[in-house]
Amino acid sequence: MEGQTITGATQICGIIGDPIEHTMSPVMHNAAFRQLGMDWAYLPFRVGQETVGRAIEGVKALNIRGLNVTIPHKTAVIPYLDGLDPAAERMGAVNTIVNDNGKLTGYNTDAAGFLKALRENNIEPRGASIVVLGAGGASRGISFLLAENGADLTILNRRLERAEDLAGQISTATGTGVKALALDEVNLSLALEKADVLVNTTKVGMIPDVDRTPVPAGRLRSGLAVFDIVYNPLKTRLLADAGAAGALTIGGFEMLVWQGALAFTLWTGQAAPVDLMRKTAREALGNED
Ligand code: ATR
């Protein structure tokens, strides 16, 4: 990899989290800066829970232009910011901070990254029947955005009351009728019969449980698009089964790339070199194993 020159004028971005060693974001963003000939650099910062506030004060003090925020700080940073964009406020989670001359604004590009990845695959939520598995934090951002963009939404969750809660909140906020069901085989087969898109936001299938899947293979078919936001492994059992059934498949890795691309644009005001970011992140993931 080519070296990067840090100058007196280099603008700094970075990521805070704990642990942080496995993040793909530095390679993605630094490759993008180099490609565009920008005098910018992106650094990883391991920040423990007890020092989040001081780290954010440091962003102002050191005039760092932007930060990504990852586990476990996505909610903890909020009290230290000067403002939130509506998506971050609704999700109660921030993954991107922009520093405008000492004024820090929190954004969340995770759900927007999901939508971008969906549209890149020529899937438009408006009028589509979409089944979302899971009702946790990841589902919340994605489900709100899908409903706002005109999807006909059904949320299935292991604990029904969480699905009902989320569906109720979205229905009230957007005026759309979001359905909630318990995540079991009968409801799955019912919901998937007429579905155009299936989205898995649960952790089922994530390393180390790579043999597990939230949906029996027999429920998958061509004509269905399957988006699994799990990116570790890159090809989950759900995606493998969906591919074998002739369904269109989209992996969580695409969401990862697009959340980064959207953050890049928030900091720099420039379109991100997405293909390059995808390629470098892919290589970094490959090198880990
Ligand atoms: P995140 O912010 O990543 O969404 P979360 O808020 O902990 O994390 O939500 C995890 C989601 O995965 C939830 O929908 C959870 O279902 P419950 O609300 O019933 O707990 C779902 N999930 C986790 N493990 C699961 C499993 N073994 N089977 C089905 N759903 C599971």
Which spans have pLDDT < 50 for at least 5 consecutive residues? none
Count up the helices. Answer: 10
Strand content: 15-25%
Main sheet properties: 6 strands, mixed
Mean pLDDT: 95
Ligand names? 2'-monophosphoadenosine-5'-diphosphate
Oligomer: single chain
Percent range of helical residues: 25-40%
According to DSSP, the number of beta strands is 12
Radius of gyration: 19 Å
- Helix and strand sequence: EHEHEEHEEHEHEHEHEEHEHH
Strand order of the largest sheet: 2-1-3-5-6-4
Overall, the morphology is globular
Report what the structure shows:
There is one protein chain. The chain is α/β, with parallel strands linked by helices. It is built from 10 helices and 12 strands. It has helices at 25-35, 52-61, 86-91, 110-120, 137-148, 160-174, 185-193, 237-244, 252-268, 274-288, and strands at residues 11-17, 40-46, 66-69, 83-84, 96-100, 103-107, 129-133, 152-157, 179-182, 197-200, 225-228, 248-251. Strands 2-1-3-5-6-4 form a 6-stranded mixed β-sheet, with helices on both faces. β11 (225-228), α8 (237-244) and β12 (248-251) form a beta-alpha-beta unit. The chain is globular, with a radius of gyration of 19 Å. Bound molecules: 2'-monophosphoadenosine-5'-diphosphate. 2'-monophosphoadenosine-5'-diphosphate binds at residues 134-139, 157-159, 162, 183, 201-204. 2'-monophosphoadenosine-5'-diphosphate (ATR) binds at residues 134-139, 157-159, 162, 183, 201-204.
